Amino acid sequence: MGKKPNRPPSGYRPSAAQASKPAPRNVEVIGLSKRLAAALIDWVVVAFFSYLAVLILALIGALVGMFTPGGPMAPERLIILLAFLIGIGYFVTAWAGGGMTLGKMVLGLRVVRADGTNLGWTKSILRYVGYIVSGIVLSLGFLWINIDKLRQGWHDKFAGSYVVREADVDFLKAGGKLVPENPGVQWVWILLWGVVAFLAPAMLFGSLWLLGPAMSSALMTLLAR
Q: What is the per-residue pLDDT across 137-148, written as a single tens digit (0 to 9) for each?
């Protein structure tokens, strides 16, 4: 005779925690297009606060004679420095705290570990280091999201992170399996990579170098009146 299947005893009722726990299911790792949209929102936020911060510092510094046009602490140099520091603080804090930058909040995405938990500070810092490495090599590390089987960029490899929908995090914590949102290579991104790889850094640094001196000149003219 075969063994009878194990069944819960008569009258058994699962606890509230067991009943509310979602059943495991596949959890899609988000691809490049949505992540790029979130990144554009985030960099607009970083640029805004960078210019706002340097405007305040430049006004204060010019009033007390701290800055001179073209000097070692001219406002245009501060813009670049503050953009870097604000970028670190913005991204690392968001990833370590809840895994959601403003851009990812808008799109309902979250950065997590393979088990659905938050990255924490160490892995968030590693992820930002990976951001820099990914961008230095003509953004190839970001394009890798499109090639990788689990949609991880190089920065994700650094930190062991995945970008999933916020609504799917509980399913991942319950043991869900990670799968790519759109299996296979999306060749359109390969074709567009050249444009993104060269224009995005050029636009970012070009705006810093062009607007920085203009802001410095305008401030000095205003304060000289």
A: 878 888 899 889
